[in-house]
Amino acid sequence: MQREEKQLEQSLEALISQVADLKNSLVSFIYKLENEYDRLTWPSVLDSFALLSGQLNTLNKVLKNEKTPLLRNQVIIPLVLSPDRDEEIMRQTEGRVPVFSHEVVPDHLRTKPDPEVEEQEKQLSTDAARIGTDVAQKQIQNLNKMCLNLLEKINKEERESESGGLRQNKQTYNSADTNALVAAVAFGKGLSNRRPPGVTGPVQSSQPGTNAIITGASAMQQVQMPGTPNQAQPMLGGVQMQQTGQPGKMPSGIKTNIKSASMHPYQR
User: Fold this and answer.
1) Strand partners, 225
2) 60, HSE (Cβ side, Cα atoms, 13 Å)
């Protein structure tokens, strides 16, 4: 007998501890809903629900434990009823029950629902019994269809929000390429000194006067000659040249205005 009483006391202490933790979590969550609703976020609400769910599961495990006696087999009998204020009851009930009198005992020691609640349960059971099987199946199918549509909409909204966040966070440039481009433009880093084929420029020569000739040759222009509209003639240093079929050979026929030094200016 003493063993069973000791086991009952230990089980009650464990239950009281679990219920106290659950009560504190509920009080904290209600406080957030009433006073911090403007800053409350959905992840915080989910965390609170997860905490409450875990505490309820722990409480159920304690009740289903083999060492926990069946509380339904225990009978609670009030030994003393008094209309006077009881400080111990006030402390244990946190001020909710100041006295333990004939008025409050039926409410606190009731093992069945209130008469009004029992009447509502009977009415609901009667209404449910009147519904036929076919009508009940149709209502169940309609409810399932509505739930599925709601879940599809919620999943669609979640996918769209996730895809929108990915599009906003997607990087549209490459930092390495940008840094390489800035270094090439500002400091010439990574640029090659070799000339591409077909590009000509000043050429160093050891012979005097060669640079001037080559520089003038680099400024060749394409001009249109009369009588040959489709053939362009090159200009070298302002002197018109005739094209020849042999590359690298100076043309023999050059039209100049230079006169012989032996010719007299008045000779006819």
Assistant:
1) 228
2) 6
